[in-house]
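Dock zinc ion; give full complex structure.
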Amino acid sequence: MPLNLTSLGCASALPTKENFFTAHVLHVRGRSFLLDCGEGTQLRLKQLGISSGSIDRVFITHLHADHVFGLPGLLSSMHLLERKKPFYIHAPAGMEKMISFYFDFLGREDSSFPIVHEPVEGDGVFTVFEGDTVHVQAFPLYHGIPSYGYLFKEVPVRKSCPRSVAYCTDTAPFPELATWVKGVDLLFHEATYLDEDLEAAEKYKHSTARQAAQTALEAGVGTLLLGHFSSRYKDNSAFLEQAREVFPNTELSTEGCVFTVPRNENV
Ligand SMILES: [Zn+2]
Ligand SMILES: [Zn+2]
């Protein structure tokens, strides 16, 4: 069965005409998991024919606006559609304020469905969810506010070798990261900047495409997928060029693309 990652958005702090804010959907054997929920997420879901009803969980990396401002709209639409099953939000502490604001602002006593905040907090690599198709672990990133990457491991079917996807945004490079995502089949890693803006990357605790590629190389991942591009660049192809100089098996996460996770042949 294919393991797919669909890109809903690849912009960073500001959107462009082409790029929406960061969000992805991971499809694992009939289950869909939302990864981040930037503004416009529900529009992209609609455009790509992915039903919000098929999503039971979102994994939020951190509480910067470009990763969470799609949530109120998505929750409101789910309510209008009379969703009944719970919606789980795995997110760092602080998410409860947004959920509380959502209820205060709408003046609703209740939602048509339970909204459950599962706080994500810890050191090193720790488990946040164990489902029937996937196990999910989290690990801290380096970004100035509490930020977490996620590691999704397929639950094996019979004797098949389980595949894995790591999702790392936003973060500056740090030594432990390559160890934590070692050998994954697909590494999604932010690449907000190009080489010429290394200073900005360091200042705002982001990565350049080359730094993301360096982490992929050290970790021996199968494929590197870059996203979270700064709106300052008119042409995103330079991200690919600079990353491929370090790690040739690199692709760009652009809206609407569906990446079937290939097996890592290096492990
Ligand atoms: Zn961001
Ligand atoms: Zn951020």
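Observed: Residues 12, 22, 64, 66-67, 170, 228 surround zinc ion (ligand 1) (CB under 6 Å).
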